[in-house]
Write a structure and sequence with these properties.
The chain is built from 1 helix and no strands. It is mostly helical. The radius of gyration is 28 Å and the shape is rod-shaped.
């Protein structure tokens, strides 16, 4: 069984699913960092000036 060089196909790179995953990861990390910033703040009661 001989193969012709014309029958060789180049592999396809599926770019749309890759973009979809990258956008999902971007949103996930943005939301997780926003949650971490809000969760790590400590309430501090500062003293008031008397005068």
């Amino acid at each position: 069984m001989r193969r012709n060089f014309h029958d060789v196909r180049e592999p396809l790179v599926m770019i749309i699913p890759m973009i979809d995953i990258m956008l999902f990861l971007l949103v996930f990390f943005m939301l997780s960092t926003m949650y971490m910033v809000n969760a790590s703040t400590v309430q501090v009661s500062l003293p008031q000036a008397a005068s």
